[in-house]
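Students often ask why we bother encoding 3D structure as a string. The short answer is that it lets us treat folding as translation between two languages. Here is a chain of 247 residues written in the first language.
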Amino acid sequence: MSEKIYMVSVVRDLSMYNKCIGENPCCAGVEKVMLDNRTENLGISERYNRFIDTFTDDGWVVFCHEDWMPLEPLNLDRLDKSCLWGPIGAKMEVCEHTDFIHISGSIQQRKKDGSWHKDNRGTWKGGDTDTFDCQCVIVHSSLLREKGLRFDTQLTFDLYVEDFCAAAWQKGIPSLIAPIRCRHYSGGTIGERFWKSLEYLREKYSDCPKRFPTPVGRRNSFGGDQSKPILNYRRTPWARLRYLRKK
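And here it is in the second language, the structure alphabet:
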């Protein structure tokens, strides 16, 4: 028997939510949990934690943005319940002198009006990754309860899933790419709030031996050795090749 799936979204744009999730035939049969944020506009982490605190059912929980759209029915039955899952993220390749960020997984990126923006196809197609983009993270309810996983409310709208992955790693929980065909109606922006959130994470994980990449920004990280240069693999493959030739 298939596990029940709960799609949990914090919603400010109801028409976008209905387009991507509410009226999406690929979401038929899943339990849609719309967390209405149009009046209070609370931080997403706080909304997600309120859901976790009151959730008593069993099944897969898909924490996703209102503008994240599955392009196929979600089949999560084969996923390992002891791991975090997501469609798109980043993986750090740690080297002696320079570290490299690989985008992992894949996603169609579209502008809000539906026009083409770009398609992110990672060099790391599947398997393990370090972090997921905030647009979607998937976790089983049994893992939420057993490990006491929660989102950091200091991170209101940026990097809260990257932190979720890092906190899970510290508890021995790996993150893996879920091969889900999906689309995101947002290119994302990097503003002052993002940089403040990144500095907060760097302080929070200053003693963590592992270096975590952020999918957004492509050259940003927290934890590990912050003095070491970091490059994006896709944009600078020549730099990685030159480094490997020196080894």
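Translate back mentally: The longest helix spans residues 192-204. Keep this in mind for the problem set.
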